[in-house]
């Protein structure tokens, strides 16, 4: 998901497809750690910017997916029916021990 965005951004900036794929591969395989190395050199700053933008989009998407799964879990929890055992527990008199 991130690699195509980096490559697309770099090719839109005029870089060849092969070079863009190589830089995108380096960024994604390092989990974004290569971005700082690219940012440290003036000639590779656009690569760092493309990497940061793609990583930010990926993290944002991951956050929305996580929130969706949490919401789905909350809804599923609310829809769990009461069990027969729980209804039997309420029919006993308070203070009665089994």
Describe this structure in words.
The chain is an all-alpha fold and 98 residues long. It has one domain (2-91). Helices cover 73% and strands 0% of the residues. The chain is built from 5 helices and no strands. The longest helix has 34 residues, at 45-78. The mean pLDDT is 86.
Short note summarizing the structure:
The protein starts with a helix and ends in a 7-residue tail after the last helix. It is 73% helix and 0% strand.
Secondary structure elements and their pairing?
Blueprint: H1 2-12, H2 17-29, H3 34-39, H4 45-78, H5 84-91
Helix pairs in contact: 1-2, 1-4
Index terms:
single chain; 98 residues; transmembrane helix; membrane
Number of domains: 1
Biggest β-sheet, characterized?
none
Question: From the alpha-carbon coordinates, what is the Rg to the nearest angstrom?
Answer: 26 Å
The helix count comes to 5
Helical fraction: over 70%
User: What proportion strand?
Assistant: under 5%
Q: Would you count the extended β strands for me? A: 0
The helix/strand order is HHHHH
Transmembrane segments: 61-80
Organism: Nocardia jiangxiensis
Keywords: Membrane, Transmembrane, Transmembrane helix
Protein name: MFS transporter, DHA2 family, multidrug resistance protein
């Amino acid at each position: 998901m991130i690699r195509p965005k980096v490559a697309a951004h770099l090719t839109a900036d005029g870089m060849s497809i092969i070079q863009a794929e190589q830089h995108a591969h380096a960024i994604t395989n390092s989990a974004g750690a290569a971005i700082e190395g690219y940012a440290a050199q003036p000639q590779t700053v656009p690569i760092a910017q493309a990497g940061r933008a793609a990583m930010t989009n990926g993290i944002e998407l991951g956050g929305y997916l996580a929130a969706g799964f949490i919401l789905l879990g909350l809804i599923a929890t609310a829809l769990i029916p009461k069990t027969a055992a729980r209804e039997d527990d309420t029919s006993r008199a308070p203070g009665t021990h089994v």
